[in-house]
Amino acid sequence: MVSDAERLAQWRTIGSRHSEEVIEIAPRVLARSTDQEWAVREQLVIAALDVGRIELASEQIDILEKKFPASPRVLLLKGLRLEAEDQPVAAKKVYMAVLATDETNVTAHQRLIAVSLSTTDVPTTIPVLLTYLDNFYSDPSAWSLLADLYCRVQMYAQALTAMGHLMLLQSWDSNAVTKAGEIAYTMKDYPLSLKYFLRAVEMENGPRGSAPSESTKAWWGVKQCAGKLLEEGETLTTVVPDSMSTTPDQLKALDLLATERLLAIGGNDMESRRKILGEEIIVR
Amino acid sequence: MPVKVEQELYLDPSIRDWVLIPITLIMVLVGILRHYVTQLLVSAPKKQTLAAVREQRALARGAILRTSTPLSPLYPSQYKAFSVSLAAALSSGGYLKEEKPKEGEEDKVQNPFDPANMDGMMDGMKNQAVMMVPNMIIMQYISVFFSGFILIKLPFPLTLGFKSLLSRDIAMPDLDVRWVSALSWYFLNLFGLNGVFKLLLGSDNAAVDTRDMSGNMMPSLPSGPGAPDPSRLFRAEVENLALAEGSYRWACEGVENRVLARFGKV
């Protein structure tokens, strides 16, 4: 059984929110004296702001400020409180002040991007995000956000580049590969999309003989791409070199395999799944 | 040859009360004091500028791209674009925190007394001073007042090799090694109280740093004088990137067959 304090510490390290639970657990932990008191208080402030309990957060911020006057971390918490109170302009000023004393404060940079996103439109935020990423390259969530923003303004090629950086940084992340496949599909680069979905399938499934993965998302992608590639007669523009392109035989086999896998993976929506895949089964 | 009879010395109990215990107590207290004095003296780590961070991350960026090449998630033209643009950015000096040095003066040695680098050196000096001064005073005090005192007898036999360690400043060659002199007791404490301090002050205390000295000095080196010139590192990174291109292989190359084989369709 994990103790409350340990659970909080675990959430802090992996950056997981669990705000509702934190609000419940943290006061219990704080009631006993603990050497992690200040970290727990900080966590409690963020959780309280997350669920909109601003009085609770203010109470904790006051305690923290008494202990650490002029600490940038407390300043950031105040900025968060301003954001929660829907005063993004004032919050922005706080973050700018933090950056004036320490221009490498990553959290302040990240909050500025978030504020910019909520107060202005996507095209103004993208340059801010790009400047941030130019300085702090290895922030996967920022690259992921950049890809999303590019998708929102229909700049899919740029989004794919952002996904490329994300995949470099998190080479284990099959969700990122699936996402790249979806972006490539939206761009109508079906051969590339198929490659990404297949790669995601490969990453999600262990070696032959182990139990196959339960996830269907990448398989749906494979199914869609294979279908598109089989029906489409026109030549597609693709970035996949000719030497690596998928042969028609492989396409047919993959199409069948995707249908098979989608039906083999159980779930609640089997009926609708059969209906979607149904026509082809009858044809066969 | 007569069998050596065990030496029996009778130590005055007041030696224990007035020499052994006080020396130990003083050593512990001085260690704790030193911990707090060091905390007062050491200045907070200097904040890096954004440009310096950017310079470091640029190198890491090259390394990330290079290490991924054998199973790269990037499709061929994308890999090419990433690699070429990064190499261009690195060699153009856009990521350097200072202006690119002019040709000819590139090889000038960094000034070791550059004020930007003095802080690190001063911290080291302060630490050493805090370490040295009390040690010298205590050693002097012991050798003046308790020179030639025998304090304890170790409960286990030792070979003659330990004579110089345990019977310092007692000029009795025939004395058994097990008898420990005052000055030796001081040295044993100096090196042996590590565990006690760790217990009292936590693991990253400043009370004992004779042993940690080498550990502390090393990481501070790259920022101080003699740090490798970033523009040179960048040039090396550009070459490495060019070399890595040879091992590039797209992870999605032949993935169709791998997936079909995984599900037994080939």
From TrEMBL, chain A:
Taxon lineage: Eukaryota, Fungi, Dikarya, Basidiomycota, Agaricomycotina
Alphabetical UniProt keywords: Endoplasmic reticulum, Membrane, Repeat, TPR repeat
Domain EMC2 TPR-like, first and last residues per copy: 77-171
Subunit description: Component of the ER membrane protein complex (EMC).
Annotated membrane topology: Peripheral membrane protein
Claim: Heme is one of the keywords in the record: no
GO cellular component terms listed in the entry, alphabetical order: EMC complex
Entry superkingdom: Eukaryota
Family annotation (Pfam families): TPR_EMC2
UniProt family annotation: Belongs to the EMC2 family.
Function of the protein: Part of the endoplasmic reticulum membrane protein complex (EMC) that enables the energy-independent insertion into endoplasmic reticulum membranes of newly synthesized membrane proteins.
Protein name: ER membrane protein complex subunit 2
Annotated localization: Endoplasmic reticulum membrane
Keyword Membrane: yes
UniProtKB/TrEMBL annotation, chain B:
Primary subcellular site in the record, as a coarse category: membrane
UniProt subcellular location: Membrane
Positions of transmembrane segments: 18-37, 141-162, 182-201
Gene Ontology cellular component terms for the protein in this record: EMC complex
SMART domains in the record: DUF106
Organism superkingdom: Eukaryota
Keyword annotations: Membrane, Transmembrane, Transmembrane helix
Membrane topology type: Multi-pass membrane protein
Family: Belongs to the EMC3 family.
Chain's role: The EMC seems to be required for efficient folding of proteins in the endoplasmic reticulum (ER).
Protein name: ER membrane protein complex subunit 3
